[in-house]
Amino acid sequence: MKKLFRSVAFLFALVSIVLSSCSNKQKPEKVFSLCGHIDHAARMVDTVILTVPNILGYQAKEFRAPLDHKGNFCISAAFQGLKPVTFVAGREVVNFVARAGDSLKLTVNLREFDESIKFSGKGSGMANYAAAEFLEFEDGERDTLLAQIPLLSFDEFMKRNNSLAQRKIDFLKANTTRFQLPQDFVAMQQALIQLEKASPVYYYFYTHFRRNNFELNDAFAGPNVDAAFRDFLNVPNEVKNTLHYRDFIGKYSYYLFSKNIKDPSPEQRAAQKQEQEVMEKSFTGIDRDIAIAELFMERFNAYDTNYYHDMQEYFNKIEGDGYRDFIVQKQYNLVKELNKPLPKGTQVFNLLRKDALPVSGLQNILDRHKGKVVFMDFWASWCAPCKAEFPFSLYLQKHYKGKDVDFVFVSTDTDTTQWQRQIRIAGLSGTHYILNQALYQDVMQKLQLRTIPRYVLFDDEGHLRNANAPRPSDLNASSKAIDAMLFEHYQK
Questions:
Q1: CB neighbours (10 Å) of residue 411?
Q2: Alpha helix (H) residue ranges in 28-88
Q3: Residue 11, pLDDT score
């Protein structure tokens, strides 16, 4: 069995590769600045964020700036060329294209955000166009098209899909002069509009795809769908390092894999190797680099540290140095993250082990925390909403540090490796248990646990006080619930 973590020597080797490649291939960047004023921001927003994607369209950096007491801010970021960027103020978001070296000013009212956005300064035409396009096409027509996919023939579906894209092309043409849009931006927008058509094509295929009925799939996934996907490859290279293109490549890759792989249940690594082989044969040039690299990223996101080594033959076929450097850096970051120690004071109890603590029921756990208020979190490593709550859980732990509150995390995972990895990655302090069968049955009976995340509050004697406590992200409600238990505790 392969070891999960590589040696320290391997980490240093990766560092040297990354540093040497970065030092040799850095290109000059220019600073883009965005300053402005947000009306009605008081007590609602204290920081604004500008996110800039990197190679493959992944978010590379967040550039933050505080708002002053009048709602003014100024934020800057260094990058190259045209970039689709995202500006975030609280819960409000605006996406637009920025050019390195430009300087914009934004004014917006937080209460009528989308309708009040106005940019001025160098490059403002591109940003104002994005705001106008959003208002023009926020009517949900694409969502309606997706909902009707099961009812439409492929020809009717493509007719509607193309019609929506043509409306956007016409809008772009009609507003090019109005917003004084530069030619390279117009070309970029045209390509992005074409890419928008890719997702519905994928969902049409996926809706009509019948797993293990390969004759039907071969007949359906013939020249029509294949040609529709293949057309999307013909976009400028400047667009190919965007989230939109990576999303398209991911969908096209799944289509190709589904069409070409006939084994209904291959062994995991065998299936992953087949995926890479399909990508290598189906794409060329930058498209092949992106397709292969995206499969590496999928495994990194699943915390698979061995994929990088097992698939070296495919990594070596990537031609672009930027993609290779990006993958090496991600592997280094992953190994480093999974090797970091658990937070100080964290206790982890694997109840699936034969030599585990004698815990056969929920009361056994509560007895270990007697004399403390217990805030219990039921979660799993595969549960995205559960993991989204972790930063707020950590905030609550910090807030109640030194007080008689124990934060207990009970995992419904069956994979202990993924369970422990997620604890490390989240830096999740507290006391952790993974359910054995006896404990699972007891929890199901006493708490009627059907869905996660689930939060339960017990008093200092182990009595159930709230079987559906507020989520940590509802900081006001969750802290009030804990405070009430603490008040009773300290009155004794």
A1: 27
A2: none
A3: 36
DSSP 170-216: HHHHHHTTTTT--HHHHHHHHHHHHHHTHHHHHHHHHHH--TT-HHH
How confident is the model over 150-173, as a mean pLDDT? Answer: 88
Mean pLDDT of 214-219: 50
- DSSP sequence for 407-474: EEEEE--S-HHHHHHHHHHHT--SEEEE--HHHHHHHHHHH---SSSEEEEE-TTS-EEETTPPPTTS
Phi-psi region of 407 (alpha: psi -120 to 50; beta: other; left: phi over 0): beta
The enclosing H or E element of 485 equals helix 475-491
Name 332's Cβ contacts closer than 8 Å, sequence gap at least 6: 11, 14, 15, 18
444-461 pLDDT, tens digit each:
888 888 889 999 999 999
pTM of the model: 0.67
260 confidence band (pLDDT: 50, 70, 90): low
CA distance 150 to 482: 48
Residue with tokens 């009970």: 410
Q: How far apart are CA 421 and CA 339, in angstroms?
A: 9
Query: If 0-12 CB within 10 Å is exposed, 13-18 middle and 19+ buried, where does residue 220 land?
Result: middle
Q: Quick one: pLDDT band at residue 181, thresholds 50, 70, 90?
A: very high
Distances 206 to 203, 225, 252, 320 between C-alpha atoms, Å: 5, 11, 11, 31
As beta bridge partners, residue 410 has 378, 433
| β 373-379/454-458 pair status | antiparallel
pLDDT, position 263 = 58
Query: How many whole angstroms separate alpha carbon 485 and alpha carbon 374?
Result: 9
Residue pair 431/364 in contact by the 8 Å Cβ criterion: no
Give the span between the Cα atoms of 372 and 386, in whole angstroms.
24
Q: Distance from CA of residue 185 to its chain's centroid?
A: 27
pLDDT at residue 336, as a whole number: 85
Per-residue pLDDT band for 56 (boundaries 50, 70, 90) equals confident
Query: Is residue 259 within 8 Å of 289, Cβ to Cβ?
Result: no
Higher-confidence residue of 342 and 489: namely 489
The pair phi, psi for residue 76, each rounded to 5°, is -140, 155
